[in-house]
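can u pls check wat happens w/ magnesium ion
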Amino acid sequence: ANSEMPVPRVGVLVFVLKGKSVLLGRRRATIGDSAFALPGGHLEFGESFEDCAAREVKEETGLDIGKIEILKVTTNFLHEEPKPSHYMIILLRAILANPDQVPQNIEPDKFDGWDWYEWDSLPKPLFWPLEKLLQDGFNPFPIV
Ligand code: 8DG
Ligand code: MG
Ligand code: MG
């Protein structure tokens, strides 16, 4: 295949759940700048989705997660990027391995910081792919 050709990439995004809250950070990026988004990133060669989820959450927030479960697979097209991108997005959920652990802003060039937000009063604006997902009725919490 021609190496100049754009290819779909795999994005792994994690709903880290704590009680009724989820972990969100304000993006610093060309697209979705200052919108609230999930921790996550690109799948690396040789990784399972769960390995990638744990690695990205650790790299971005310092948090250790457990009970990692795949919830949904979706496609995101980000046409507004300088280079349009096509993501196969894997959405997972997880909980803190140690409930006392506090998120740290390890990549301050990418995020303003991390905090817990109650599901019923999420901050605005959400990064639009996340906003759309929630408008479609997606809920990462286990059914009780
Ligand atoms: P890496 O270079 O560290 O591997 O990856 P990253 O820099 O951490 O990747 P990312 O941008 O955080 O995530 C990959 C893509 O996933 C991102 O460019 C766009 C897409 N994406 C969504 N929704 C969300 C979201 O809520 N949060 C994040 N972080 N990315 C999202 O479609
Ligand atoms: Mg990331
Ligand atoms: Mg990353």
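Residues 49-61 form the longest helix (13 residues).
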